[in-house]
From TrEMBL:
Highest rank taxon of the organism: Eukaryota
InterPro entries given in the database record: Znf_FYVE, Znf_FYVE-rel, Znf_FYVE_PHD, Znf_RING/FYVE/PHD
Domain FYVE-type: 60-85, 176-263
Keyword field: Metal-binding, Zinc, Zinc-finger
Gene Ontology molecular function: zinc ion binding
UniProt-recorded name of the protein: Vacuolar segregation protein PEP7
């Protein structure tokens, strides 16, 4: 007896089963959730129903009665109350998870980053939620689907009306999406009222009250134009979230549990950055104050020396075009030459000091401004004074009254200074090579060679100093002072 157009397979209408009994069976299946024998999941592992008087869920304690019926978790076989078996999962007939299997009742427990969460779920078939991984998924998804494009962001808003985009679905979304009530307050979900809202982090379903749009994935405004922006994530209204709404952002739902977890992490991170910043700031200001002091010392010296230099030129009468007779003999030339060399030295030290400020790393905009102003102010000073100095020197060189012996004397001082620099440099090299030899237990051929070269340079230097009619002992002390500084820097890395 074939039933045309009824949709019932012909072979079922033959044999023992009548259509009537088949329909009866179908209705029964739907009522009980039982399936035909060939799909039946094993019950061998079920705990005997009478082994429990209360729900096996830790902390649930629901007592079984005529109204509160017993339910077996199809996965672990324990006995639970109805609200504790609200989830479904695809299992094969041997009760193992299987995407091809049928949906079966089961209970879940949740571990968030290895820590058991006991507030709302139970402890048998566990989910291990790796929040860091889920957060990464959200950031990457945002980057891919929105990135820096305003158009794509608008599209995302529209797209959300059709359903949750894949990147907003958590690892366990597939399993939890079948839950029938809020996992926090147990309110039943409805089609129109009290709709289910998945947490975009853990994937569990909650009502709107227990799962709010408090998570923001965004690209900081300062990175907006960049080619490869790095999305951030933050819980809003918590310290560490952006102060103003970034242009490129989406708000996502987050359940109370994940809210708590991420909030705590965010606060911790904020505290850490604040401590780091404070330490960095301290270091910055110490360095900047030191540098500023050093610069002002050199500036004071330049300010004191420059008028003296000018005075020397004036008293020699070169400036006024007075006859050569006003030159105060050889002694006067020496003083002038020395003053000129001192000035040159001061300018070199000054430029080096300004350069060294550039090595200080600012970490806030305020610090950058301070640093910039310090560098700019000092460069302006340099420009002004060095211009004056050059003008004076030019007068000296241009004047017809300047005799060869003045220039020669100046040259002597320049030579002396160059020689002194070479000498200091050699001494330093010798010391460094000695340190290296010591560290790596090498033989001391190189340091010995340096020492020999040093001896030769020392003789030349002595000659130069004599030519300038300077005192060797005094010069030696100067040199030693410079060397002491250098060694200290070499050994302790301080300035
Ligand atoms: Zn179970
Ligand atoms: Zn229960
Ligand atoms: Zn969550
Ligand atoms: Zn709720």
């Amino acid at each position: 007896m074939a039933v045309a157009g009824s949709g019932i397979p012909a072979d079922l209408t033959q044999g023992e089963d009548s259509v009537e009994s088949y329909i009866k069976k179908l209705v029964l299946q739907q009522k009980t959730g039982e399936v035909t024998e060939q799909y039946a999941i094993t019950k061998h592992h079920w705990k005997p129903s009478d082994s429990r008087k209360v729900c096996a869920t830790e902390g649930c304690g629901n007592r079984f009665s005529l109204i509160s019926r017993k339910h077996h978790c199809r996965r672990c076989g324990e006995v639970f109350c109805e609200s504790c078996t609200r989830y479904q999962m695809r299992l094969n007939t041997l009760a193992s998870p299987d995407p091809q299997g049928r949906l079966q009742k089961y209970i879940v427990s949740v571990y968030i980053n290895g820590e058991r969460i006991s507030s709302f779920l139970t402890f048998y078939c566990s989910f291990s939620i790796d929040i860091d991984m889920e957060v990464r998924r959200l950031k990457e998804g945002f980057k891919e689907s929105v990135g820096n494009s305003e158009v794509r962001r608008t599209f995302l808003e529209l797209r959300k009306m059709v359903g949750t985009p894949d990147w907003q679905r958590a690892t366990y979304w597939e399993y939890t999406s079948l839950s029938t009530m809020c996992c926090y307050c147990n309110k039943e979900f409805g089609l129109l009222q009290n709709r289910r809202h998945p947490c975009t982090v853990c994937g569990f379903m909650a009502c709107g009250d227990c799962c709010s749009k408090d998570l923001i994935v965004y690209i900081p405004n300062e990175e907006k134009g960049s080619k490869d922006p790095e999305p951030r994530i933050a819980v809003i209204k918590i310290v560490g979230c952006p102060e103003r709404e970034p242009d490129m952002c989406v708000y996502l739902r987050i359940c109370s549990q994940c809210h708590l977890y991420l909030e705590e992490k965010q606060v911790q991170k904020m505290q850490q950055t604040l401590t780091d910043q404070l330490q960095k700031t301290d270091l910055f200001w110490t360095k900047i104050v030191e540098a500023a002091k050093k610069l002002s010392r050199i500036r004071a010296k330049i300010n004191a020396h420059l008028p003296k230099y000018q005075e020397h030129i004036n008293t020699m009468g070169i400036d006024s075009g007075a006859p050569r007779a006003s030159l105060q003999g050889e002694n006067g030339i020496q003083v002038l030459a020395r003053a000129q060399c001192d000035m040159s030295d001061l300018f070199v030290t000054f430029v080096l000091a300004v350069e060294s400020i550039r090595g200080i790393q600012p970490s806030t905009t305020q610090q950058t401004t301070v640093l910039k102003n310090l560098v700019r102010g000092n460069y302006n000073f340099y420009q002004e004074t060095v211009f004056l100095f050059r003008e004076l020197r030019k007068t000296l060189e241009d004047t017809t009254l300047t005799s060869a012996d003045i220039l020669e004397t100046i040259q002597k001082f320049v030579d002396r200074n160059a020689m002194r620099a070479v000498y200091v440099f050699l001494k330093q090299l010798a010391l460094e090579s000695l340190m290296l030899c010591d560290k790596f237990t090498l033989n001391n051929t190189v340091p010995v060679q340096f020492a020999e070269a040093e001896e030769v340079v020392c003789q030349d230097l002595k000659q130069c100093i004599k030519d300038c009619k300077d005192d060797w002992a005094e010069s030696e002390e100067d040199i030693n002072n410079v060397l002491k500084d250098q060694i200290q820097r070499l050994l302790y890395g301080t300035q």
